[in-house]
Amino acid sequence: MRKKARSIAVSSGKGGTGKTTLTANLGIALANDGYEVTILDGDLAMANLGLIMGMNDCPVTFLDVLSGDANPEDAVYEDYGVKVVPTGFRFEEIHENLSDVDSERVEEVVSELLRKTEFLLIDVPAGMAETTIISIAAAREMIPVTNPNYSSLVDCYKTIRLANVVDTWTRGLVVNRVGRASDISRDEIEHFMGNTVGSISVILDVPEDDTVHEAERAGVPVTVYEPTSPSSESIYELARVMAGESDLPYEPYEEGEIDQTVKRLSRALTGRKS
Ligand SMILES: Nc1ncnc2c1ncn2[C@@H]1O[C@H](COP(=O)(O)OP(=O)(O)OP(=O)(O)O)[C@@H](O)[C@H]1O
Ligand SMILES: [Mg+2]
Hints:
about 270 residues; alpha/beta; Rossmann fold; nine-stranded mixed beta sheet; 12 helices; 9 strands; about 45% helix; globular; binds adenosine-5'-triphosphate; binds magnesium ion
């Protein structure tokens, strides 16, 4: 059978909801379930993915690829069975990097990465900056991550609106750090979504779990640090849901799908309609 190509953006709107933690661990869970996974750090400014994956020394990064100084394959590192394209945090270059993302180069890189993997997960930066829009448009599917409070949910709603504009499909929400009595309920979340962006349901709750912090201190992703912790088990469940294809509004098969993704990305980047 031909290799599938699915691209999934993990986004939130508000910062600190758990995107990077979930992207890294979802990738590891999918890889453990036998899929080929590549994770791309779309957060050019903060570049936390490499840290969560325990990568401290990556001489070539996504920034070098975007600037044309390196090929995509030179910036791919493998850890815990997952390929990772990290972004280096280089303070002195930050203005250059953020103001001048070359859209054609992004298209080339995304299409090359998609040709070599089954799942491309993109850790999307918070906010509404250009890099946020590009990271969402570079994926065919999006899972927004919210915390169980209204301020997080409102920003999540904005991200879903953005995804609709660039034609990226929102499968449903992940609610992370669930467990306090003051949390808003799943019904309230779905009701809020119903009144704003239409029917978007909650895919899954990930519990508040101290093991995530312990793992972070140990420099190891939580699904590796303690695979049976409550958060790890939820993330494995999320991987099973995400791997399912029965709900997909498109056929994730190689060449055609990659072309479609790159065309959509191009439209989003240039504002063209065709
Ligand atoms: N399920 C969880 N239980 C407990 N702590 C969690 C959980 N998920 C994430 N965290 C903690 O929340 C903090 C933020 O997580 P993370 O860096 O993944 O968020 P982010 O959305 O990527 O943030 P940013 O917007 O800054 O990129 C981290 O300290 C992490 O350990
Ligand atoms: Mg992050």
